[in-house]
Write a structure and sequence with these properties.
Blueprint (H helix, E strand, L loop, with lengths): L1 H10 L3 H12 L5 H8 L7 E6 L6 H14 L4 E7 L25 E7 L11 H10 L4 E5 L8 H6 L2 E6 L12 H6 L2 E4 L7 H14 L9 E4 L8 H17 L2 H27 L2 H15 L5 H17 L1
Parallel strand pairs: 1-4, 1-5, 2-3, 2-4, 5-6, 6-7
Helix pairs in contact: 1-2, 2-5, 11-12
Length: 319
């Protein structure tokens, strides 16, 4: 009964109900599948924008400024701030909400901090599902700010239709050493804190790197210089984001994005179920210990042990 009431309140626009349903998804509640299934028909309207980059690049301030501009157009915004996980509590460390205080009183801005919970991509395992929920809640734009840990931010590109890579002038000397993955996921590159020395040089270096990494579609990534703290260059950046959305709509890429996310959701759920089924079998854990002992004594290699463990599982499934 309580669950049904939450869904009804969610559909009616109750923010507290939305927050509670997000918590159930984060906690991997048995009701998570039912929650997402009950609202999925409303998913697909929001523009999802990923914002990634190294710590200290000013991503939170940039998010705050962009949100202010979006709100001037009377569009609702949800912000998912993915933070590092505390090794003690498992919660998000220094949630970015504390740096977005100017948005707290706006009823059309929904801010949620999430812990990475061990995700190497800096993107929490449940972020995509949470974005679906916020999409179904009626938000026009969803901003996904990640913790920023380098190439592993490839996860952002899978969760967002438009990906912003935020860098600072201090990154200039190391731009040539940047891994290709980070350059390839960016639809828009932002040189923030551009009032500092080296901003122009960094912008030119990014342009040069982009020339070396042609995109798979006809969109040519753009580079913007901003100073989020001073509010400079934000409007031009916002225009660039709108242009990218119009490009996606013109070439029907939103449908491709939706299909890819559906594929990821299905495969991820199946992998999770298989993983749980495998390790919830006590006999598989006993086999594991047996093979660990054999590998430790040099009788077999860990790789052969893994193959043998899988063979045991297949044999059990045939019975």
């Amino acid at each position: 009964m309580i669950f049904k009431e939450l869904i009804e309140r969610f559909v009616s626009g109750d923010r507290a109900a939305c927050a509670k349903l997000i918590s159930l998804i984060e906690e991997d509640s048995p009701q998570a599948v039912e929650i997402l299934g009950s609202v999925y028909s409303k998913v697909g309207q929001a523009h999802r924008i990923g914002i990634t980059g190294p710590p200290g690049a000013g991503k939170s301030t940039l998010v705050e400024k962009l949100t202010t501009l979006i709100r001037k157009e009377d569009r609702s915004v949800a912000i998912v701030a993915v933070d590092p996980t505390s090794p003690f509590s498992g919660g998000a460390i220094l949630g970015d909400r504390v740096r977005m205080s100017s948005l707290f009183c706006d009823p059309n801005v929904f801010i949620r901090s999430m812990a990475t919970r061990g995700s190497l991509g800096g993107l929490a395992f449940k972020t995509r599902a949470v974005c679906d929920l916020l999409d179904a809640f009626g938000n026009d734009v969803i901003l996904i700010e990640t913790v920023g840990v380098g190439q592993a931010e490839l996860d952002v590109a899978k969760a967002a239709q438009t990906t912003l890579v935020v860098l600072v002038p201090e990154s200039g000397d190391g731009i040539q050493a940047m891994k290709a993955g980070l350059m390839e996921i960016g639809d828009i590159f932002v040189v923030n804190k551009s009032d500092r020395e080296g901003a122009d040089r960094l912008a030119v270096e990014i342009e040069t790197m982009l020339e070396m990494h042609p995109q798979n579609n006809s969109w040519r990534p753009r580079v913007f210089k901003t100073s989020a703290e001073k509010g400079e260059g934000i409007e031009s950046l916002f225009v660039g984001i709108v242009e990218h959305r119009l490009f996606l709509e013109k070439h029907h890429f939103f449908r491709d994005f939706q299909k890819e996310n559906i594929r990821l959701d299905i495969t991820q759920m199946v992998e999770q179920r298989l993983n749980e089924s495998f390790w919830n079998d006590p006999r598989m854990n006993r086999f594991l210990e047996e093979f660990v002992d054999k590998a430790a004594s040099g009788e077999i290699s860990p790789y052969a042990a893994a193959c043998k463990l899988w063979e045991k599982w297949q044999q059990r499934r045939k019975k």
